[in-house]
Structure formats: structure tokens, C-alpha cells
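sry for the spam today, last one i promise. C-alpha cells for design, 253 residues
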């Protein structure tokens, strides 16, 4: 295939950005999207030009670092797929593909297609953990967990923190990410000791960086793991309860 790429280039956080156009010839339909960018970069380097900076790591849809806006859609045209799992057979010969970084105030651009997702780290630091005794592993069936609860927690834990939900949201809201991280701990018995402290701290940290959720619903379709909006409702309920419970306990616990 022969493709035309319009790629966002930006030399640094404070630099003025611009779109640059590249011709991508000899692209095989079985290449992944990132392999296509690798090939374009090899040709740029060979020609003495600066390669396109983009994030990647596992290339297996696990780490969440590869997120790009492709033709205006987070992760591209294929649903439930991270950018690294997207293959060029989703495009046609002669297509023009517009490639941009996540567009959100909370994700400042570092260079080209690379953004700083450190705001997610601040949310996890606020409460994304459990207190557990050290020592040998407990017996697997020591704490009974209903299957429905375990399934819901595991579905929430599938979030890879890529930021597609924020990039797709008109408000730049971080509720789906935060709700997924809250739910996968709050639903399980091991997460109960910090439950009310966790949800209060994580939600209020989120509000420092991200916009407000107004139920546009753009986040769930953009999520490569299909995290449900139901988790936001669960988080909102727990947050309201936390303000009552934590006040009765004399403040944050």
C-alpha cells in the first residue's frame, strides 16, 4: 500500500507544533500500525531527518503506552484495540491518515506524539493500593469471593491506563480510568480496609487534573478494554458515602 501520513510534530513542550506530511510506500497490510511508523522512521533516519517520537513498550495491548489519535479516533478505527494491535489492513491503498497525540490539558505534549500521563500516576499514588500483611501467600480459598464480584473486579482491572478515555471525552474527564482503578480494589474483600479513604482521595486527586464527567459516553467506546460506564456510577456512589463515613470517623482515614 501507498499511504500519505499527516503527523503532528512538536519539538518540545513549549514549542509550536505543526503537521508534517510523509509518503509511506511499500506498506504491507499485515504490518501493525507501530511497525508502519517504525518503517517510516527508518527511512527518515536514513535520509538524515529527525524520526517521529511516539510511545511504545510491550506492543501487546497490555502496557497502554502506545495511544494515538488516528483520523480523529482514539487508537484508530477498530474497536477494542490498542494502537499497537491495530493492523494496516484496516486502511486502504491511497488513504491519508492523520496521526496526533492525545489532546487533553491533563496530558501535556512532551515531543511529537508523546504525552505526559503523570496525572494518572498521581491518582494511583493517592489510593491505588491495599494494606496487606507480609509473609507467605495465604490459602487461595481462605477469603470467599462471589464469582460475580470477582468477574466485575477483573473487568475493571483490565484498564491499561492508556488515556483513550480522556482523549475521547469532550471535557477531558478522567472518571473512567479512576473508576476502574477504584472498582477493582473496592469490590474485593482485600480492598475494604482502605475503601472509603481510597475513593475520597482518588476522586479528589482526579479533580485536580481532569475535567468533569457529564455523561457524554465517549469514553467507553474509545477504551481498548471496554471498561464499562457502570464503574463510574459505582465510584460516584462510594464517593458520596465516603464523605459521610469519613466525617463520622473524624476525617480521612
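last one done:
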Amino acid at each position: 500500500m501507498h499511504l500519505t501520513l499527516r503527523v503532528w510534530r512538536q519539538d518540545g513542550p513549549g514549542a509550536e507544533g505543526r503537521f508534517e506530511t510523509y509518503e509511506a510506500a511499500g506498506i504491507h497490510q499485515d504490518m501493525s500500525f507501530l511497525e508502519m511508523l517504525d518503517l517510516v522512521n527508518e527511512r527518515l533516519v536514513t535520509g538524515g531527518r529527525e524520526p517521529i517520537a511516539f510511545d511504545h513498550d510491550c506492543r501487546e495491548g497490555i502496557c497502554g503506552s502506545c495511544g494515538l489519535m488516528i483520523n480523529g479516533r482514539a487508537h484508530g478505527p477498530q474497536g477494542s484495540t490498542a494502537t499497537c494491535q491495530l493492523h494496516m489492513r484496516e486502511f486502504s491503498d491511497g488513504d491519508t491518515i492523520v496521526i496526533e497525540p492525545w489532546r487533553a490539558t491533563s496530558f501535556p505534549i512532551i515531543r511529537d506524539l508523546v504525552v505526559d500521563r503523570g496525572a494518572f500516576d498521581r491518582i494511583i499514588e493517592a489510593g491505588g493500593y491495599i494494606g496487606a500483611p507480609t509473609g507467605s501467600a495465604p490459602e487461595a480459598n481462605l477469603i470467599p469471593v462471589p464469582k460475580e464480584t470477582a468477574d466485575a473486579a477483573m473487568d475493571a482491572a483490565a484498564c491499561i491506563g492508556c488515556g483513550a478515555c480522556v482523549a475521547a471525552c469532550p471535557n477531558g474527564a478522567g472518571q473512567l480510568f479512576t473508576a476502574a482503578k477504584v472498582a477493582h480494589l473496592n469490590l474485593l474483600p482485600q480492598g475494604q480496609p482502605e475503601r472509603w479513604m481510597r475513593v475520597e482521595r482518588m476522586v479528589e486527586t482526579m479533580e485536580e487534573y481532569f475535567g468533569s464527567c457529564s455523561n457524554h459516553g465517549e469514553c467507553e467506546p474509545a477504551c481498548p478494554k471496554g471498561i464499562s460506564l457502570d464503574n463510574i456510577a459505582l465510584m460516584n456512589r462510594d464517593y458520596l458515602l465516603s464523605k459521610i463515613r469519613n466525617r463520622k470517623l473524624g476525617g480521612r482515614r
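The mean pLDDT is 94. ok im logging off now
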